[in-house]
Amino acid sequence: MPEKLGAPRGTQDFVPPESGRWSALEARIRELAARFGYGEIRTPAFEATELFVRGVGETTDIVEKEMYAFTDRGGRGMTLRPEWTAPVVRAALEHHLFAQGPLRLYYIGPIFRYERPQKGRYRQSHQFGVECFGFAGPEADLEVISLAWELVRSHGIADATLNVNSIGDDVCRPRYREALLEHFRPHLAAMGEDARRRAERNPLRLLDSKDAADKPFVESAPSFESFLCEPCREHFETLKSYLTLAQIPYVLNPRIVRGLDYYGRTVFEISSGLLGSQSAVCGGGRYDGLVRWLGGPDVPAVGFALGLERFLMMLQARGPAAEPARRGIQAIALGAQARTLLVPIVAELRRTLDLPTYMDYEERKLLAHLKIADRNRARYALVAGSQELARGELVLRDLELRSDRTVPLEPMRVLIELLVEAGS
Ligand code: HAM
Questions:
Q1: Residue 351 CB coordination number (10 Å)
Q2: CA 407 vs CA 382, 397, 399, 418: distances in Å
């Protein structure tokens, strides 16, 4: 026997009915994005490695240790997309989309990060994200936060917290960085190894350290708020008042700094206690510098990405999903003659009805066929047995109301009209 192959570590297959939950969520997301005026963008699953090194930042965890980077057969450095924001900017530049004014884009699709797999953390995971380009003011920050919050709210998820923070801009961040270094320097020897490395490269990242040894020093660190320059402070204050007006509850969290280099001013995360240690379901913020870093014009931008695995985990934590409503028709032929007759009828139903039509082609007892209908969650069984056929009839059984009625074989119009009426 050849050895069985499994899915690669940290990846998952989604099979029915689980895959149905994914497509239902994706359908709702697409509706929501359209309601906010966002159009879909699709980009390649891999890009030049350079894009992520420049876009996400050389000293970030993603670029330092998590990229699926490889050299292709032509000797070019390529990387499986670890996040969408840099590719979206690359594509918008390539297609001159910024020349047309403000731009609102969304995406749904996989990302790849070589992380240590655990609950809620995978090597291939999936994000829904939006990117809003062309608005420097906090109205756009509110817009994207509202969109993310609406997704959470409309699914009745009560146990979710919106954390917001501002990490300033190129004017005030160097001052804050200095203040942080001054605060941490005397304690670095007592802190974790990661902390010492981060202190040198990006002291802001010390604030989201998960190391217990760092905790007391992180807690006593100064917060950015008192270091914000006037324009950054005003931006943040206006955003906060917009959030209050929009009745979106939030928590000011000075520890939210985000792990990607492109952010400035607003940063936010939505987290939930339902998720365990990987508690962030959504993360985003403003990134006014990225389009320029990647060789484009000055275009302010703000966006977020939401992890679909984690979002579905939150939905599941609310309790078991209700059984899906019964829908469609199970065609059941009892005997070879009935089968010959029913096959073209099924073909006709599939052409004309906007309902699933199922048929099992094996010879089975009625009871076995009805079990299959149950598994398919069919609403009706359309039964062709020898007695009915002799009378030129079929039996249509409502599997929910448990009632039978006979329908003439000809004209088929009668059956179709009945089913159209029932299905609508
Ligand atoms: P991020 O915080 O790296 O941001 O990822 C956003 C969300 O994707 C996380 O909160 C989490 O739910 C999900 N996620 C990320 N990595 C994994 C993983 N290994 N397993 C499961 N879920 C994961 C970004 O990616 C930015 N591009 C967001 C953004 C868009 N900022 C501005 N625009």
A1: 8
A2: 9, 10, 16, 9
Give 83-139 pLDDT, tens digit per residue. 999 999 999 999 999 999 999 999 999 999 999 999 999 999 999 999 999 999 999
CB 397 within 8 A of CB 404: yes
Per residue in 258-307, pLDDT (tens digit) is: 989 999 999 999 999 888 888 899 999 999 999 999 999 999 999 999 99
Q: Is 13 in contact with 7 (CB distance < 8 Å)? A: yes
Over residues 12-50, the pLDDT tens digits come to 999 988 999 999 999 999 999 999 999 999 999 999 999
Inter-axis angle of helices 336-352 and 412-423, nearest 10: 50
Q: Chain centroid to CA 396: how far?
A: 41
Atom 13 in ligand 1: which residue has the minimum CA distance?
A: 307
Q: What gap in Å lies between CA 76 and CA 123, rounded to an integer? A: 23
Counting residues of the chain whose pLDDT is more than 90, the rounded percentage is: 81
Q: Is 264 in the pocket of ligand 1 (CB under 6 A)?
A: no
- 91-104 per-position pLDDT tens digit: 999 999 999 999 99
> Are 423 and 329 contacting, i.e. CB atoms less than 8 angstroms apart?
no
Answer whether 60 contacts ligand 1 (Cβ < 6 A): no
Closest ligand 1 atom, CA of 287? 32
Residue 423 is encoded by which pair of tokens?
A: 């299905």
Q: What is the mean pLDDT of the chain?
A: 94
Ligand 1 close to Cβ of residue 55 (< 6 A): no
pLDDT higher than threshold 90 for residue 196:
no
